[in-house]
Design goal:
By secondary structure, the protein is an alpha+beta fold. It has 3 helices and 7 strands, in the order αβαββαββββ. 21% of the residues lie in helices and 43% in strands. The radius of gyration is 15 Å and the shape is globular.
Length: 137
């Protein structure tokens, strides 16, 4: 696959994220990029990437960046605002990059951009909350 030749690595994840993928990641200096190779199962009836699939990828990327910044503490999505900019056809490889714009003791504010071949397809802003450790029941 071309993505692997460009340094992308596939990830098999448990739960819902495993169903939404397979997801890809690539280290870029101190940062990470996250990706999705669009396949038939990701399409909507119009034969384009389903908006929910794209939002799932973006939410995963944003929350993973927040998780890393919070010292690998799970982070919950409190708010996710998005703007769809273009459609994505089957075979496209969506890349997501995210960055933290502000942070408080327990909240992280992020921006994300999803693109295909350098063309933006979705931009997003999110507020994530670092979750306190859960005690065993």
């Amino acid at each position: 696959m071309q993505a692997q030749a460009q340094g992308w690595k596939p990830h098999e994840l448990p739960g819902f994220m495993g169903l939404a993928g397979p997801l890809w990641s690539r280290r870029e200096g101190d940062d990470w990029a996250y990706g999705l190779q669009v396949r038939a199962e990701h399409l909507n009836p119009a034969r384009m990437l389903h908006g929910g699939a794209l939002l799932t990828l973006v939410d995963h990327a944003l929350s993973t960046v927040a998780w890393q910044a919070a010292g690998r503490v799970p982070c919950l999505t409190l708010q996710l605002d998005s703007h769809f900019l273009a459609g994505v056809a089957e075979g496209g490889f969506v890349e997501v990059r995210a960055r933290i714009t502000q942070r408080t003791r327990s909240l992280l504010f992020l921006q994300g951009l999803a693109s295909v071949d350098g063309a933006p397809v979705l931009q997003a802003q999110a507020i994530m909350k670092a979750a306190p450790p859960r005690s065993a029941p």
